[in-house]
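Issue 218. Parser rejects a valid record. Input:
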Amino acid sequence: MSRWVLASLVLGILGAELANSTLLGWVCFGLGLLLMLFKDRRQIALCLLFLAAGMLLTGFRLERLYAPDYGNEDSYTLKSARLIQAGDDYFAWQGKVIEPQNLAGAVVLIFSEQYRPGVYRLRGCLYPPVQYRNPGQGWHYKRRLYAGEIGVLNHPQALSFQERPLSLIERARSSYRNNIAANIANKDSAALALALTTGDRSLLQGELKSSVYLTGVGHLLAMSGLHVGILLGLAMAFLRRLGLSRVFSSVAGFVCILIFLLFAGPSPSLLRAVLMSAWGIAALLWGREKQGMQALEWTSVFMLLYNPLWLFDYAFVFSLLATFICLAAGGRLETFLAFLPEPIRRTGSITIIIQLVALPLTIYLFGSSSLWAPLANLALIPLTPALAGFSLLSGLIPGTAGMILSLPARYLLGGVAEFLSLLNQFPLPIKMGGLGLALTAVTSGGLILYLSGLTLRKTAYLTVASLLIAVLVFNFYAYGVTSVWFLDVGQGDSILIRSRGHWVLVDCGDAYAGEKAVLPTLRFLGVDKLKALILTHSHADHVGGMETVLANIPVDQVYSNFMPEAAEKAAIVVKEAKVLADLEVYSHNLSLSNLNDTSLLVSLRGKLLLTGDIEEAGERLYWHKIGPHQVLKVAHHGSDTSSSPEFLAAVQPQASVISCGLGNRFGFPDMATLDNLAQGGSQVFRTDLSGYVRVDFWPWGHVSIITFIGR
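Output the parser choked on:
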């Protein structure tokens, strides 16, 4: 029953997050109460009540999220909370907002040249918690925002600073960190020791940091059930060796875990592990062992009732899935590894299953996984208790004794760093997106159903049916719906078009956005080849990302009004061209002193008009060609030198999209342009305020528009 209760609660949370409907929640609650009157309907009633609880509690939480004003310079008073990264020439740290009052209690990430614990008065522009809000970044954005992490202050001006005394916990953390740094002289070993025992990754840098995540062992540094189990096991073993009773050792071990929870910080995944340990110890003392699955399910229910938004913390979800697999898998995969020794067989089977189930989530979140991940985990997971134990000693014991006791940690962790670095030399990445990622996720879901106890035949039927549905849905969208993504690339342009199964990219942002925004989005959406890359003109905010795109994605043809060096083999200088059956490129082919006015125009046959950075003088050159279009990409990021009333009257857009950077130094979009669009009755969408904008042109003529943040 606990499984159905958890499923109902999760369904209610997801439903409320997608479409917050308090009325529907109360209807489910009332229906559940009504069904409780009938004995044979009480299980259904209980599920309805938890469904309603998920919807109502999630709606309550969502209504109370912080609403910061991004992109505008303001003053903030913050209390330092935690050091995130100590770089060679910068510090990244978190601060809790004291003022302004409407953001009090929120967490902000600050990048600065110096860092000391204290109360800061800073002035700067607050930016969203993810830099580029494009497809594939939704979970990262929600995880931070739902946890109260509202954004980033990048090198703000320091107006004042007041040092504050450290609390007892902060002093303990600082002492522990300093002991590890002093006792383990090797910086890579010290970084791994600190991260492995506390989750503090502030010492991880450079190649070691990339190696940890690219080889798929980053989860070992996230505080979860593995670490709680190791600590509890070490504490109980030590106390039992002293001759203490089983009951006393269990209770004392749990007290150690509670102290560790306060020391490391109560993250959702760590809190889940601690609560499950409490359940397990209670069951052990009462002589009712093997309660693991019930402990997992009811612990998850209680945690999600307390804060339903924890469901969007992917560390919590990963931890939940891994624990479920360990409890449910049993010996199903071990039979295929019968030729291996028992300890290796059990560790290997669990590791392989976890990697298979986590694969789509890992690729979804981080863009890729590694074929080395199973091997790296198989090698390191059995070593983790020893690594954690020696690392713990190096942090707890100062002086000469600490240096001697930390020697095993120094050399073992140094070997781990070298091992990961070696694997990272040949990364063997697994990269996929779009349909491939969806099919992998469906297959992974089928594996979870099988592990849950569903028969192999039923699992096969459901999985095959789901795979067919996924293929049909993706093909309908690819060939039946024309979709356009106006990507968030900061102060620049990049528009991705999918029409009749073909992909076309118009501009690709500046060099940094090309690498960090455009390429990850193309991979996430499953773009394995571009039919065409269209470069409207040669300014860096439109073509800077060209080299990154061409180096990673095959391109059939590059269209431009200049000859880009990076695309000499594929490029043609166009006057006019038909790229696809319904996609045309226009050019007046004149040499003008203002490069903006040489911009190519791209027309999707009455549906969409893309205008580059063309200004008013250039607009006049196209009046005889341009007719009405449903959607307009506003020229030159909304500058008042473009989008003249005459041009807008010719285009007659029902909706307009402005691509510009948040808080940009040019002040785009200009109020005059916004007024012109409003007078023409066009609905305006902006990438600086809403993140990416997606426009779908349906076969029956309807146009739908969605954005990253839903407005």
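Fixed in the parser; the record now loads. The chain has 26 helices and 23 strands.
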